[in-house]
């Protein structure tokens, strides 16, 4: 009996070692691993494409780009979303919004809660009653 157990154990080890070396079992594992890797890669690519498509569709359409700023702006000039020059907003004027749709504040002021707050160096006017956001 003891010889049979020893022979059986020896055969078991030989079978495991030969399976690992011959590639019969490892071929199936390699194919599975390649499938999982490819699926993960394709999934990541699809997610990236969807995110880029979402950003692109949300961007406003610009009819003109890089237009020069108008002359004689009371509070200076700034660039809008399409890189066109526009007149800046002054103290107390509405600003901000989605993609700066209401404009940017001029020098010396900052947009707080949708209103330009601070003092303009152009005419000395100030606004400090910004609402609590």
UniProtKB/TrEMBL annotation:
<dbReference type="InterPro" id="IPR010850">
    <property type="entry name" value="Neuroparsin"/>
</dbReference>
<feature type="transmembrane region" description="Helical">
    <location>
        <begin position="35"/>
        <end position="53"/>
    </location>
</feature>
<dbReference type="Pfam" id="PF07327">
    <property type="entry name" value="Neuroparsin"/>
</dbReference>
<keyword id="KW-1133">Transmembrane helix</keyword>
<keyword id="KW-0812">Transmembrane</keyword>
<keyword id="KW-0472">Membrane</keyword>
<protein>
    <recommendedName>
        <fullName>Neuroparsin</fullName>
    </recommendedName>
</protein>
């Amino acid at each position: 009996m003891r010889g049979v157990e020893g022979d059986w154990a020896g055969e078991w080890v030989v079978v495991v070692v030969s399976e690992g070396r011959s590639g019969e079992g490892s071929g199936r594992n390699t194919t599975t691993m390649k499938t999982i890797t490819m699926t993960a890669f394709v999934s990541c690519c699809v997610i990236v494409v969807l995110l880029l498509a979402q950003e692109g569709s949300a961007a406003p359409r610009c009819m003109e780009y890089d237009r020069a700023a108008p002359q004689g702006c009371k509070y200076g000039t700034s660039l809008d979303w399409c890189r066109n020059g526009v007149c800046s907003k002054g103290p107390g004027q509405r600003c901000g919004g989605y993609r700066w749709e209401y404009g940017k504040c001029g020098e010396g002021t900052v947009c707080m809660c949708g209103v330009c707050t601070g003092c303009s160096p152009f005419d000395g006017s100030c606004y400090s009653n910004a609402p609590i956001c």
